[in-house]
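Structure ticket #2291
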Amino acid sequence: MNFARVSGTVVAETRAHSIPNARYLLVEECDQMGQGRGEYLVAFDIIGANRGEMVMLTQGSSCRWARDTEDRPIDTLVVATVETIDQSGRIVYAAGEKE
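Resolution: structure written out below.
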């Protein structure tokens, strides 16, 4: 899994293998402290993440294990929002503090 910060949304009305109510997000990959890397991905959102939130992504074939994405051409999936990251006994990220 990887960390990313939600930068915006992507609208794609015409798409292959339509998924009802599909929501795609533009996410910037980031480190464990929430610092962006300048690399962006489009991710399918199944949890309702919001702009500015740090999220956890899964990529590759494991994205098709979720009920809504089974056997669909999904390569990047938002699976969680990050509240806190503890690294070696020190809080390096806390939601709301660096947004």
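Closing remark: The first strand starts at residue 2 and ends at 10.
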